[in-house]
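queue> holo job accepted (flavin mononucleotide)
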Amino acid sequence: MSNKITELFKIQYPIIQAGMIWNSGWKLASASSNSGVLGLIGAGSMYPEVLREHIQKCKKATDRPFGVNVPMLYPNIEEIMDIIVQEGVKIVFTSAGNPKTWTSWLKARGITVVHVVSSVKFALKAQEAGVDAVVAEGFEAGGHNGREESTTLTLIPMVREALDIPLIAAGGIATGQGMLAVMVLGADGVQVGSRFVASEESSAHQAFKEVVVDAKEGATHLTLKELAPVRLIKNKFYDDIVELYKMSPTSDDLKVLLGRARAKRGMFEGDLEEGELEIGQIAGLIHDIKPVAKIVEDLVSEYETAKQQVTSLF
Ligand SMILES: Cc1cc2nc3c(=O)[nH]c(=O)nc-3n(C[C@H](O)[C@H](O)[C@H](O)COP(=O)(O)O)c2cc1C
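queue> job finished
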């Protein structure tokens, strides 16, 4: 496969393994890059020196391109960006912040910059800021999300209509059929998150991976909109949030309930009751934990088969 996205990142398939806190360390990123897609290290859950270690290990484990995802809502961003430059990383995906803040600084240092958005308005801001491509992420995606609730099916064609630069679709894509669907809607590539959580190489706790595999339709909900909207599995922690909402809480009340390190506790340490378990709606279609190479192989072969099936319909 060859298109704008494979050319931009010098990869085999127009597929990005999403940056994901507590899930995408060097093992997942290098396995993804070695399978022909773009692997991303998720810096959001890493202290700066931990990130440096992951980048160094990733460089040893693959000679193919990989990148780093930097959610700008976390602290130490200056230090993180310096490490990215010092370690020679050539691709950065920024999210959860203003694309103007870092794009020109990164581009002046020869780095390809992609920004993640959940609306047409922010896609245009990212394009104005000079990014090389945009990830447009629909409401069904796992992790933090926008407040607009635009689904992938509606967001992708609207962003495509407004934007000239390459467009990567995210949210609800775990199969080659899903990938073909968003490319028909105007995407040049896909960013896949939840499917890679349930991979052998993801650093998620085994118990969390099993919850993802067992999740059925309706298992997730987008909540905590007053803080930073996040889609998570309905567990005891989620039930506590629902109870608190009945008392019309302030943002501070929600912050107190959320506390610190909930996401680490849930996804990395496997506390299925009290932890925050971030996953997308498409978990209902993920039935097994597979090696990354097999996930990529399946995505590509399903995509090719779906393309044939569609043409044979007419
Ligand atoms: C467990 C988890 C953690 C995530 N962490 C991040 C993150 O640190 N930074 C970010 O930009 N997006 C994050 N996301 C969103 C993904 O990068 C991706 O856009 C999303 O998972 C795509 O939707 P899907 O889950 O339906 O494939 C996370 C998603 C999940 C499931």
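queue> The pocket of flavin mononucleotide is lined by residues 18-21, 23, 42, 44, 69, 71, 95, 116, 137, 140-143, 170-173, 191-194, 197, 267, 278-280, 282 (CB under 6 Å).
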